[in-house]
Amino acid sequence: MKKLLKPLFTALFAGMVCTGAKAAEPQVINIRTNDLSMVMSVAPNGEVLFHHFGGRIDDASPAAGIKSYRRTDHGTDNLAYSTMGGRNFREPALRVTHADGDMNTELRYVSHATRTLADKNVSETVVKLTDTDQALDVELVYTAYAKENVITTHTVIRNREKGDAVLHAFYSSSLPVKARSYLLTHLYGSWARESQTDHTLLTHGSKSIESRKLVRTTHTENPAFMITLDSEAFDENYGEVIAGALAWSGNFRLNFEVDEFNVLNILAGVNPYASDYTLAKGESFTTPEMVYTYSFEGAGGASRNLHDWARNYGVWHGHTYAPTLLNSWEGAYFTFDAKTLTDMIDDAADMGLEMFVLDDGWFGNKYPRNDANAGLGDWQINAKKLPEGIDHIASYAHSKGLKFGIWIEPEMVNADSDLFRTHPDWILQVPGRTPCHGRYQYVLDFSRQEILDYIYEKIASILEGASISYIKWDMNRPFSQVGAENLADPKMYSYLHTMAVYRIVDELKRRHPAVQFESCASGGGRCDLGAISHFDQVWTSDNTDGIDRMTIQKGYSMLHPIKTMRAWVTDIAGINKPCSLDFRFHIAMQGALGLGGNLEKYSPEELEICRRNVALYKEIRPLVQFGDLYRILDADRDEVLCNQYVSRDKMQAVLFLSARGTRFFKKKMNLRFAGLAPDRAYAFTLDGVAYKKGGAFLMEVGLPVYVRGADYNQIVRLTAVE
Fold this sequence. Notes:
The structure is a single chain. By secondary structure, the chain is of the alpha+beta class. The chain folds into three domains: about 15-315, Beta-galactosidase, Chain A, domain 5 (Distorted Sandwich); about 325-625, Aldolase class I (TIM Barrel, Alpha-Beta Barrel), CATH 3.20.20; about 630-720, Golgi alpha-mannosidase II (Immunoglobulin-like, Sandwich). A hairpin with a 5-residue loop joins β3 (about 35-40) and β4. α10 runs parallel beside α11 (about 605-625). The longest helix is centred in the C-terminal third of the chain and has 23 residues, at about 605-625. It starts with 16 loop residues before the first strand and ends with a strand.
């Protein structure tokens, strides 16, 4: 797998520039991108101290002479990776019970090494540490992406002790930050209300953002954040902002602790809750990757850095279009036959779409999947619904110029299924307790290799038996029981299950590299960088209401790339207020466009609207999925949504302008564009008026806009002209 996100397990490589030194010798570690530096130094006692994350510093050697301003009874200075032990009184990044029962760890510098990877844009720095008294080693691995101004980090923990050590906390990253104030921005919500944005001014003490739902993590919280420095106001365009995202879909914790010196200590990684891990003698443990960037152009600059990095390094098929598609769910639900599906395929082809995805209901025979109560786990074609097999449907789609995809939910099983009746012991259960049941589903124990082999082979056989280009991988309930009976370390089930999902998907992609995978998880349950690094897209929310999606999609876009965000046009025509079909399209077109309605019920006029908008989306798709995003107006704050997507060469741009008002209203406003080339002129049409204006004028002065009514929406296409 050619993914630089994957942890690297070796510490030293041939050709490295390596520094191994006595603790007393001054050492400076300067990790750099084009515009950023992360600076550490080695104290006389061997502690690795963190000094700077921000603007690039070419000569960081003065950091070696910085002396502590803290008295010994005030605790340690800003450690690069804090531990429980010594004089550290803050929340530790690493908490260990050693083989002899010692609960203290004090890490000291051994060496550091930097090398440039085959991709000359990427460099890796490994900082080696070891405990003062125990045979426990820690490697801090930093990977710098020069053009994207992103630095990722993970930790490798090795046990050389005489027996097993127990890891109680093992964060991926420990980041001390010094500023006058810290405004935390993060995402929260609930099912159908995901990716809501919250702004909190951090005060002295601790604040944690975490998930304890084991594997479906992001409905309520998201393992990503922004910190605005030295300002109490969130701004899209101005100010210094740190953004971070954890590439992990299991239990996570982000801890923000402001100490008595007004230093903010950020910990990010696997949640210590129910996560004790026994690290056997001679073994190592690698934490998930934490991704950081630093922006001098507000939150928008941080978003663009992360989007750019994700497309280049963090996402499967990062430079491949997410296809337009029709999903069968709302048009057919569980009740369909081959004719129903072929009619839907005809509709999709008529719309100019590129793919048809068969959702839930296509499997199960003894226990047919006619509702949510039965069939999960029995991954064979339902012979009554599809007597000619699924390949017949796939072939029909191909004959119409469409690719074909299917829905699966491999992590679950219904009690009414052949799989459960044959293997009742395969579900996640705790001896002596009633297995936890939810949504008529039990959780398969993905810590067992035989179960993983079974699931993998079932999915592989489906992919090889029909020409399938897309897998919609669902997971419809959180886990609420830990301690599977066969686990040597039952508290690690969240970690083991998450890693198992990643491994299955990665292996399927290795064997079928052209197949795209969508992470569904009951809507927004796996909308995190970890899922994105293994899947291709995420189903952002089960809520497809055009008004609600304004907020959901804005929150998602702050920390995740647009091309990964599935957005459908459905028959939900506005829960809060009526939404025209054009309006719903214009909102969904700001992601990876799909249709989910029942096109058989559409009027000829509505079908023509669909065709027109699908054709338009395919024209502007390069800008939406691969361009630079500028969030100009916020629907929640301004009653109007305005997003602009600009090509990297600044020759093209597309601007979406939509009213959110819950009442009839008229609003006169001045619209200032963003991200254009100041020295170029742009031609475009706005409100029926043709313009040719300079980029500098459009960005600095702007144009008057008259928002007429609550259903107002426009798409403005800008082209650079002589």
